[in-house]
Amino acid sequence: MKRRTGQDRSITQNWRPATQAVRGGTARSEWGETSEAIFLTSGYAYDCAGDAAARFAGEQDGMTYSRLQNPTVQMLEERIALLEGAEACRTMATGMAAMTAVLLCQLSQGDHVVAGRAAFGSCRWLVDSLLPRFGIETTTVDARDPQQFADAVKPNTRVFFFETPANPTMDVVDLAAVCGIARERGITSVVDNAFATPALQRPLEFGADVVAYSATKMMDGQGRVLAGAVAGPRDFIEETLLSFTRNTGPTLSAFNAWVVLKGLETLDLRIRKQSENSLTVGTFLESRVPRILHPGLPSHPQHELAMRQMEASGPIFAFHVDGGRAQAHALLDALKLIDISNNIGDSRSLMTHPASTTHASVSPENRREMGIDEGMLRFNVGLEDPQDLIEDLDQALRAVGL
User: Fold this and answer.
1) What CATH number does residue 56 fall under?
2) What is the mean pLDDT of residues 161-184?
3) Do residues 141 and 152 make contact, with C-beta atoms less than 8 angstroms apart?
4) Which residue, of 224, 248, 265, is where some domain finishes?
5) What is the predicted pLDDT for the residue at 360?
6) Is 107 part of any domain?
7) How far apart are CA 149 and CA 114, in angstroms?
8) Fewer Cβ neighbours under 10 Å: the N or C end of the chain?
9) Domain ends where: 244, 265, 286?
10) Do both 187 and 94 map to the same domain?
11) What one-character-per-residue DSSP string does 96-154 give?
12) CA 157 to chain centre
């Protein structure tokens, strides 16, 4: 496949993020298409049997099977790596496939993981339920306090795993401090950066080893497809992660990869506008609800840290009502514009009740430990006019007595 002149790392890595988001990783066929092509193929043909043998032996460049390589998927992986400032990237079918793979590829029976206690419900399930089944010990800590990571380290600790900002509590982790502790002790730090994306926060620049994503969220950004990604050092991606994904098969489809490539072209524009809208809406809500957790507002206890690590606050925040599940559900039911949905990162405004949806599988005790109560609502602010969102919120709040 003929590649456009200049599509090598020595040139593309020096492009600025906006250029990388549109052109990074692009490979063109002999037809010279301007938009990335979708290669809907499961396998590849060889000119001779010797070529097939050479490719499988790693002695010849070329693709063998789309569980391992696909031209469209490869373009997405290169683009994400460039945006992240990583040496390499592998994509997967979903965000949770990425989270599962990035942990299991490097952990064995007898190892120990320290994880942030505030996390997406399925990530907590990995830590609380799946890893222990394989004899992998886990400890959850309040990730807002770097010392708790240090205190939890054991001789068999292999991984620090955490989100920042965390879902849905919006806890912010001091990346430099926690990743520094990991590096001092030879522990791999894995950061879930789905809320911020590389457009707003690049954990590798703060010392993280590996970054994992649900690309379903802001990278696609329009609620269309599922995708996941893991980015980091080439030796980790190709020697540790690749053998796991190659043989277990959490493969991203070429079509979904193409959709995410299109999403990345507008990621920076969308996430910054949604961050701006989120601040406008959050400022309105702050005077109407008992408690709001928005990293872009000075009232957030880690506001200064968030603004040091992130270029903008992102589109997502949480708030609490005092009337528990009944009042939270009533508020959701009173909305006329904003959708009730458990998804995030969409260009549409979405709101959910985590305790009964995204974190319903987490035990009540662990939800309380994480700071998720029955009155918490998580809000993804979209690209609508923020005044329309405020008017919808105003009438819904009044309908439930707020």
Assistant:
1) 3.40.640.10
2) 98
3) yes
4) 265
5) 94
6) yes
7) 7
8) N
9) 265
10) yes
11) HHHHHHHHHTT--TT-EEEEESS--HHHHHIIIIIHHHTT-EEEEE-TT-HHHHHHH--
12) 24
Give yes or no for a contact between 127 and 190, defined as CB atoms under 8 angstroms apart.
no
**Residues 45, 53: Cα–Cα separation, whole Å:** 12
What confidence score (pLDDT) does residue 3 get? 44
Residue 11: the pLDDT is 84
Rounded CA gap, 297 and 283, in Å? 8
Tokens of 55: 């490719």
Residues 78 and 222 in one domain: yes
Q: Do 279 and 234 fall into the same domain?
A: no
Helix%, strand%, coil% for the chain, nearest 5: 45, 15, 40
Cis peptide bond N-terminal to 315, omega within 30: no
Query: Which of 151, 169, 92, 147 lies closest to 354 in space, CA to CA?
Result: 169
Q: How far apart are CA 143 and CA 163, in angstroms?
A: 9
Total domains present in the chain: 2
192 torsion bin: left (phi>0), alpha (psi -120 to 50), beta (else): beta
Could you tell me the residue range of the domain that residue 125 belongs to?
Answer: 9-265
Residue 317 lies in a domain: yes
Quick check: pTM over 0.90? yes
Specify the DSSP element, H or E, that contains 197: helix 197-200
Q: Are 136 and 162 in contact (CB under 8 A)?
A: no
